[in-house]
């Protein structure tokens, strides 16, 4: 019988008091129902690594939705149940936790979602992706803090290795290829050599994964602290190329992502995506968009880049009139312009993009269409024309007050 490892003092040191109190209370309730409750997955891994993680995933050998309902009563928590999956989310003032029924899974075919039936914690851990994610911490009072580690997660954490539980792991679920890369790069681990062989052998299995699931994995990568790291690794392993062969996880990408972080505290995943896709041609973008089944709004942002890039030469020139900068960038989304600004490599172009997003795009004449009508401009396209001329004059500093605008309009009306 292996030694029992108890991590309760680590939980005390690492989890905020509100969450600690919650998991203890949940453990007591589960005990009263004679069910076993566990903290599982990333939270246990990060506890052993000494990394903060407030993502609380609980697994109960029993009905998770019922148990969640009872805990919620004590905690005045909101429960969102997903009966199809036997899971429930609890949200209360001090935090959030996900509760799932322990389950056993089997895969009908590669890439498909697994068939699920209730099981034990041992079944539940055995269906997981990597040894470091396949540990559980018991929460019932008598065994509170005891570690369940049937697959050697602790050993692999010490050796800093990402290792699958069995040879069919990537075949069952090829999104684990992206996950392995993400954990390796985030935690400074190495993909263990047999796992690496399996990964390389199964890269083609990524074609069995739906666009929605691929997009989800890419979004998770783009939410990492330094997404260029997993993207570089994915490039080396031929995984990035499965999204589109023209995508590169190279030095340029790393430098441009780093620049984005210097420029703003927390660049959005959408900005990172626009930079990743920046060097693609319009047809290449179309195929990436359909591979990832990108929603319309995201796809539109990517599709702006080829148009915007046509203006890069002119935007790189010095001494450009503000109204010209406005014309070159008007109608484009802030994210696409931001990507252009970071990717152009031209300080002039970057300066012009910043001037546009910071100032020029908000410039409007003081006079309205109504004012123009009152001044005698006949209704019709002439109004719009004059308003555009007024904005241009405002942008270039030829007028800077309502009075000067009125003078300009009078001049235009009388044909001066
Ligand atoms: N899991 C898995 N296979 C997947 C996705 C998830 O086995 N394709 C399991 C892992 O045990 C993982 C847990 O489900 O630990 C929760 O998944 P997720 O929330 O995506 O991961 P975390 O471990 O919480 O990691 P992260 O820190 O990236 O959120």
Account of the protein in words:
By secondary structure, the chain is an alpha+beta fold. Helices cover 52% and strands 11% of the residues. Among the domains are: 153 residues, Beta Polymerase, domain 2, CATH 3.30.460.10; 53 residues, no CATH class; 46 residues, no CATH class. The protein starts with 7 loop residues before the first helix and ends with a helix. It has a 7-stranded mixed beta sheet. Strands 6-7 form a two-stranded antiparallel sheet.
Percent strand: 5-15%
- How many individual helices? 22
What's the alpha carbon Rg, rounded to whole Å? 28 Å
| Cofactors, ions and other ligands in the entry | cytidine-5'-triphosphate
Name the CATH homologous superfamily of the domain at 1-153: Beta Polymerase, domain 2
Distance between the termini: 98 Å
The shape is elongated
**Low-pLDDT stretches:** none
Q: What would you call the structural class? A: alpha+beta
Mean pLDDT: 94
What's the architecture of the domain at 1-153 in CATH terms? Answer: 2-Layer Sandwich
CATH topology annotation of the domain at 1-153: Beta Polymerase, domain 2
Helix percent band: 40-55%
Major beta sheet, specifics?
7 strands, mixed
Strand order of the largest sheet: 3-4-5-2-1-8-9
The total count of strands amounts to 11
């Amino acid at each position: 019988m292996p030694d029992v490892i108890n991590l309760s003092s680590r939980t005390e040191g690492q989890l905020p008091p509100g969450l600690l109190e919650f998991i203890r209370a949940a453990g007591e309730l589960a005990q009263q129902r004679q069910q076993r409750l566990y903290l599982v997955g990333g939270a246990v891994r990060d506890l052993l690594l000494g990394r903060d993680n407030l993502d609380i995933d609980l697994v109960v050998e029993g009905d998770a939705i019922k148990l969640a309902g009872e805990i919620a009563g004590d905690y005045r928590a909101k429960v969102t149940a997903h009966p199809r999956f036997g899971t429930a989310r609890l949200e209360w003032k001090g935090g959030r936790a996900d509760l799932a029924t322990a389950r056993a899974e089997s895969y009908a075919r590669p890439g498909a979602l697994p068939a699920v039936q209730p099981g034990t914690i041992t079944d539940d851990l055995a269906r997981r992706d990597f040894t470091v994610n396949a540990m559980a911490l018991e929460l019932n009072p008598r065994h509170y803090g005891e570690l369940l580690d049937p697959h050697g997660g602790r050993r692999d954490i010490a050796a800093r290795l990402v290792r699958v539980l069995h040879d069919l792991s990537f075949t069952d679920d090829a999104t684990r290829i992206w996950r392995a890369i993400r954990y390796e790069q985030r935690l400074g681990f190495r993909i263990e050599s047999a796992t690496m062989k399996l990964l390389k052998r199964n890269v083609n299995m990524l074609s069995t994964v739906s666009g929605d699931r691929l997009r989800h994995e890419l979004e998770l990568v783009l939410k990492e602290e330094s997404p260029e790291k997993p993207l570089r690794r994915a490039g080396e392993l031929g995984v990035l190329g499965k999204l589109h062969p023209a995508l590169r996880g190279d030095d340029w990408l790393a430098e441009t992502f780093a620049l984005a972080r210097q420029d703003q505290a927390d660049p959005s995943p959408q900005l990172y995506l626009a930079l990743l896709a920046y060097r693609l041609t319009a047809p290449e973008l179309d195929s990436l968009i359909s591979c990832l089944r990108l929603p319309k709004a995201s796809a539109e942002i990517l599709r702006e880049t080829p148009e915007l890039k046509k203006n890069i030469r002119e935007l790189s020139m010095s001494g450009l009139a503000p109204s010209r900068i406005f014309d070159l960038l008007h109608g484009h989304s802030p994210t696409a312009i931001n990507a252009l600004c970071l990717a152009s490599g031209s300080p002039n172009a970057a300066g012009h993009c910043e001037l546009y997003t910071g100032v020029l795009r908000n410039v409007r004449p003081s006079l309205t269409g109504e004012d123009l009508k009152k001044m005698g401009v006949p209704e019709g396209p002439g109004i719009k024309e004059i308003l555009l001329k007024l904005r241009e004059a405002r942008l270039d500093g030829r007028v800077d007050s309502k009075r000067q605008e009125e003078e300009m309009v009078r001049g235009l009306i009388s044909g001066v």
